[in-house]
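Hey, quick one: can you model this chain's 3D structure?
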Amino acid sequence: MAEEKILTGDEVLKKYDTESNTMEYRGVMAKIVSALAITFSVFQLYTAAFGVLDAQLQRAVHLGFGLALAYLLYPARKSWRRDKLHPLDAICSVLGAAAPAYIVIFYRELVLRSALPTPTDVVVGAIGILLVIEAARRVVGIPMVCVVLLFTSYAFLGPYMPGFLAHRGLTIDQFVSHVFFTTEGIFGIPLGVSSTFIFLFILFGAYLEGTGLGKFFIDIANAIAGWASGGPAKVAVLSSGLMGTVSGSSVANVVGTGSLTIPMMKKLGYHKNFAGAVEAAASTGGQLMPPVMGAAAFLMTEFVGVPYIEIVKAALIPAFLYFIGVWLGVHFEAKRGNLKGIPREELPKFWEIFRERGHLAIPLVVIVYLLVSGYTPMRAALYAIVLSILVSAIKKSTRMAPAEIVRGLENGARNVLGVLIACAAAGIIIGVVTKTGVGLKLASGLLKLSGGMLLPSMFFTMITAILLGMGVPTTANYVITSTIAAPALLQLGVPVLAAHMFVFYFGIIADVTPPVALAAYAGAGIAGGNALKTGVNASKLAIAAFIIPYMFVLNPELLLIYGVTGSLALALLTALVGMVALSSSLIGFLAAPMKPLERLILGAGGLMMINPGLLTDIAGVAIFAAILFLQLRRRQ
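Sure thing. Here's the predicted structure for all 636 residues.
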């Protein structure tokens, strides 16, 4: 594969992040789009403050705004002009607002004739479904559309399907009525979560970025780790982890922090393929980092039926282990290449940064406090949005002008479109699953394929999630895998939260898994490296993400499901030793350069510590100690 030229942040986003490749209007159209986006945000804030509408009404208004904006901002063809609205897009935008508005206007009549649609209902519903699918093609991408069309075809081809997949089949009326006019299809749980929690947290993230919190995180990371061995790479890991607390997009995180950290890494001596990989692996982990995780985490609260703070607690130790794994990989690579840090005199001073801009982090602290105190995520996010604006005004250097506050409303609405459309499209899949019962059938088929054994079932579930994640965004990936794959793990006795976290993790890690590794491609674009080699390096650095889900399924204590216990400390200790062993074996350095046989043996020892059994832990620790002893002797 040819080396790629170095791209700017905007070029990377447009090339690798479909959601960022939007129209660039000027004049009247720019004002119309801004007004629509701001109105959308105001509606969401109003309902959050004074109470949401009935479920289907809230979701219908949410979808109407989303479709109208999506068709105005995402052209049907990439070759069309980016500064002029095409008539086809204008028509689709109007229809996108009108189809959900039909539900709002005739809500009472639709409820009274539930499951008995009129010909008009069917026509409007069919138009709405087609508009959601086309919006998914424009905003999310072709792979998502292919999955949706596959499930849609299955709804009609049931009588012709082989074996356990066969069903009676649906008529057009049944399909449209179920998918568009009930809360089990497009207007199901995913869109419901998007219309409440997700929108507000994305708006919160937009305001935090507007206050300059991202730059604050990078400066703090520089002050903490910039001087250490391989300093800029460790800064990338630390700053991307901090950015992940407010950003739910791997590619956007790569661009936000990588534009600064990747050039620093290359200057220090890291190869461009490794520099891009460090940022990709660290930025992908941002979606695993509490308190503001990826949008799929909010869906998990509804699917699992636990408060959001329980999801945050469960994610703490796995996220910590993930970033420890990436940090170790960077450290061993720096030691192997004898890469020094940045001189201390060239770095910003920690306390000076904290004194000047530390107040910007107050909303993050407050939102965690509110969630722990029992506030709903929607109420906590609402208060945090207001607080982020007020806190920025404490100092003149960080104060947001009125125009910036209004721009935050527009950016929040724009940023939510990818998640909103993915949730609506995923609702079509859920509608087919609930109407045909294919979810349980696929789970039974997965169990049969794995022979009813846990480890093979986990492996097949992992492959499913990674393959889907290569083309489907994390949100939709989680919806699909939690519907068709997680039930297989549940039938084998895996705790419900552990099963859902398992598919959540592998959906995210697909962003650094070749051949389609969007976060790695973005890192390679900024570094000017080879995309495939960058993806391979990112997978090595992110090895923890391939191992940790197995660890918390086999040992659910790591998710704090049973609280803090003595056995948790032992499990955490062996997990940390396992991370050190695996990272060093993949890089080829522990205390000194490693021989191939040593790397193989140490990798095996690290894998032994995945299983919480006493004998495997003892064997793994013994192997690690023996290799470390040999390494220390060789270094002397």
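One thing worth noting: The chain is about 70% helix and 0% strand.
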